[in-house]
Amino acid sequence: MNGAETLVKTLLASGVDVCFANPGTSEMHFVAALDTHPQMRCILSLFEGGVTGAADGYFRMTGMPAATLLHLAPGFGNGYASVHNARKGHGGMINVVGEHADYHLKYDAPLKGDIEGVTRSVSDWVRVSEDAGSVARDGAEAVRIARSGNGRIATLVLPANTAWEGADGPAEPLPPVRLHRPRPDQIAAAAAALREPGAALFVNGPALHGRLAELAGKIAATTGCRLMTDLFVPRLARGAGAVDIECLHYPVLDNVEILRDVRHMVLVGAGQPVAFFAYPDKPSTPERADCRMLDLCSPGMDIAWTLEALVTETGAAEAEAARIPLDLPELPDGPLCPETVGQSMAALMPEGAIVCNEAITAGHPIAQATRGARAHDWLNNPGGAIGAALPLAVGAAVACPDRKVIAPTGDGSAMYNLQSLWTMARERLDVTVIVFANRGYQILRGELANVGVREVGRNAERMFNVEDPELDWVALAAGHGVDAVRVTETGDFIARFADAMSTTGPRLIEVAFDPALPTD
Question: Thiamine pyrophosphate enzyme N-terminal TPP-binding domain: which residues (predicted)?
């Protein structure tokens, strides 16, 4: 048995049975080991950003980390943005990165890079296996780290000789890392603060869906506090029957107004709200200056125990959480725009859909329209590195093959991980991609105005639009094996989206609309 085989066996023994991959020469022994273990599902992406983004989506929907297989420092570098997004969303991931054989490094071969530098900057844990006998133990530790703290990025660098040299059998799975908990006096102080006028319980992570969202809703119903979260959260349960959680907006001045009356903010699984960017003469944080901020439970602490303790402390066990009512709109008949697309989605999305949203400027009207749709999960991009929607959709569809996955995205952002369409086709994933073809990076026009620039000249315009030539999403999708159609009328979108919702398999709808139409 060689080192690579012990690693595969250790991953499987630890419950890791999905590997998103883009391997190269240095990983061939690991590929061979994967090939002899068919119980490990191996999924190829044609670009490393699709590999790591899919692993992020998989973790969000299962709470279990997948493995990735990446080729040397450049391969990890190509996947860096999606790892960044996962880390910002406190996701779990096990990156297996091949490296040159240790004795080969001194020759500075073409693909040699600062592999520890590039991996450490975005990983919570990095280890370079010293020899074949260490690989299995290192793999078990990588799994333990990835599952700790509600999800962490673990990166195991595997020099090629440690993969092909002989080793003893696999390592036993390691016990989980115990999560830290707040002290009883901190729980009591937080409960008292939540009963005060102007209080808010600000939650994130696993407190936004399932049982923990129910607990947060009970606390809010009992204390009278506002239940709130950020806009770009990794996963939020929405739609009919979901706990009613108020979301912040993108513009920082909107959030200043939203939080105007909040005097006590208790953070559970969340950090302090912060503006996405700094702007001249605008604040970096939206809360009022005299807001008392209680950082009760950081994202890496025991969120479940903390909410249970707050339920007990506030006497909320029998309370009923406020819920979002079913509010299905009529099918629209106006001009094709983000609002009519959102209304159509709300009317036609099935129960249990997963929406991987990166529609950028079109995202707000879609979110508004679908809030009262049938129950669904909403996945955003907490790290802000664009190109997330398509690989997230791959990971979500692998994790939940019985649920419809919908990926609204801008045309500019979709180009960053376009190759994920091929993986959808290869794996027969049930994903419907909606590309808003507004022919540019429309959000940058607003950002230019935010820093005080009102006149847009030729250079800026050519950096903002993706015209001349226009992107042909029907042709791009077809070239990756995905059926696609372009729509220019609302009725056409309704028909195509309804068909996508009633059948299975990947498809793409290009929404060609005039970006000058209002979106509010």
Answer: 1-106
